[in-house]
Input
Amino acid sequence: MRRLFPVTYETADHQGREGRGGPAGDAWGLDALADAYAYPETPEDQAWLRANMVSSLDGAAQHDGRSQPLSCPSDMRIFGTLRGLADVVLVGAETVRLEGYRPARAREAFAARRAAAGQGAAPAIAVVTATLDLDFALPLFTEPLVPTYVLTGAGAAPERVEAARRAGAEVLVAGEGRAVDPRRAVELLAERGHRRLLTEGGPRMLGQFVAAQVLDELCLTLAPMLAAGDAQRIAGGSALVVPERFDLVSLLEEDGFLFSRYQRRRHSPE
Output
């Protein structure tokens, strides 16, 4: 793996002492990736929401209903690193059903870093769902290291809410009707001390976060593949009136895959 941006005197010469534009020694091991993807400092009452998605060259976020066919070993290392840094991983109910989500596991490689940051052994999973149409017998609910959150609206069916609670999930009401208000969802998690938030999709949920303008960062893997078909792109749903500008802060490459990191442009006070 090599760093393409930002370019410094250490990365400009690919044949220099650090080789291929990356760290010396065990280039881009988990520690180096954790440093490269560290969350920025934020006020104590504010959360930072980042998304991690993969796309084909022609804009497909999935192939045959799943994102895994577009991935690669380096993408999965970054996937694991982003999870290892997060307090909570947000995911849509459809993605839970399609991809068989399991609870996040504790990883020794991140234990010291998480302890120093005051985090638990593993991030919690937060499922965003209007209907609570979920199988509460799944390990995501029966075997997590920390309780799974279920984010839903006030109009959710009471019997489904009770089923979630009986399964051990913590239900958070983040909307007046059935739908979840993305901004309120982020606020509720921040109120519980979860400031490092990560969403892994799917596209419909990411589109809701984008439309609500609560997404702070996008980590996007561009796979050197063409998929065709009618798969969704990484974010769907309602369009913004004016596209929101994000700035490139990091770009890595390996075997033709590009691993980019964009952050929302902050306007300086006048």
Residues 14-21 have pLDDT under 50 and may be disordered. The chain has eight helices and ten strands. Helices lie at 30-36, 73-85, 93-99, 108-116, 139-142, 158-166, 182-191, 203-211. The first strand starts at residue 2 and ends at 5.
